[in-house]
Amino acid sequence: MSGEAHPDELGAFLKARRAGLGPREVGLPDSGAKRRVKGLRREEVALLASISTDYYTRLEQGRRQASAPVLETLARVLRLDGEEREHLFELAGKAASRMSAKPRRGVQKAEPQLRRVLEELTTTPALVLGRRMDILAWNPMAAALLTDFSRLPEKERNYAWLVFTDPAMRALHADWENTARSSVEILRREAGCNPRDERMARLVGELSLRDDDFRRWWGRHRVTAHRGGSKTLRHPVAGELTLDWSALASVNDPEQQLVVWTAEPGAAAHDGLRILASWSAESGASWSPSPQG
């Protein structure tokens, strides 16, 4: 199933990926002399992909469409991982994007089913992320773990925004750089598939002006999906918590994900979450959904 192609984004992505590879990494001779371009040259990529330099140049310049077999070959030549390969096909319009599966709407609200799940999770931090990593809803445990989202203006209820602009969020994440870089890669993937998203453009523009790291990582054109992993948080009340997190997409709206943080029973982090739950109950934190545009 084909989607909408984005030739300019595709060209920028290809250029960034070849810039990150050296000749030796792909089996080409390297004299050691200083090269005029960073990474592989266009003609080297074309040679490895068994296509003409003119064909590849036009592809990178957004003046030519690539077939699925050529995309497969380029993914192999450029050493793309699974997420990057999928992104390549999405930009070329050869695969339906998860984020373009439903028409864009003016206002996005947390799905009622996800709200009910949040209400039931009384000892597990959980929130609902929408487009651009907007925070659509959360439970008291998520507010206790991360921040009191209800006190933030709606435009600042965005996970990536908080990671880069809130000093408390920066201090909370033991490996802030990895969290921040992953946020950029998630945004980059969505932006590539929805280049006319004005809210995304404003978010990226503001973060690029405010943070040098964001601007540098954005320029690398690396992408990833928001699915799960492990994260260590240094919480002022519960202490150090190493938590597993999972992102579960909504069936009714794939642009929404329920993100939950859990810990293995018996682990120190599990006890820490129980302490956090008690503190949250005593503090009177309340669950609240938030509409986003």
TrEMBL record:
<feature type="domain" description="HTH cro/C1-type">
    <location>
        <begin position="35"/>
        <end position="85"/>
    </location>
</feature>
<dbReference type="Pfam" id="PF13560">
    <property type="entry name" value="HTH_31"/>
</dbReference>
<dbReference type="Pfam" id="PF17765">
    <property type="entry name" value="MLTR_LBD"/>
</dbReference>
<dbReference type="InterPro" id="IPR041413">
    <property type="entry name" value="MLTR_LBD"/>
</dbReference>
<dbReference type="InterPro" id="IPR010982">
    <property type="entry name" value="Lambda_DNA-bd_dom_sf"/>
</dbReference>
<dbReference type="InterPro" id="IPR001387">
    <property type="entry name" value="Cro/C1-type_HTH"/>
</dbReference>
<protein>
    <submittedName>
        <fullName>Helix-turn-helix domain-containing protein</fullName>
    </submittedName>
</protein>
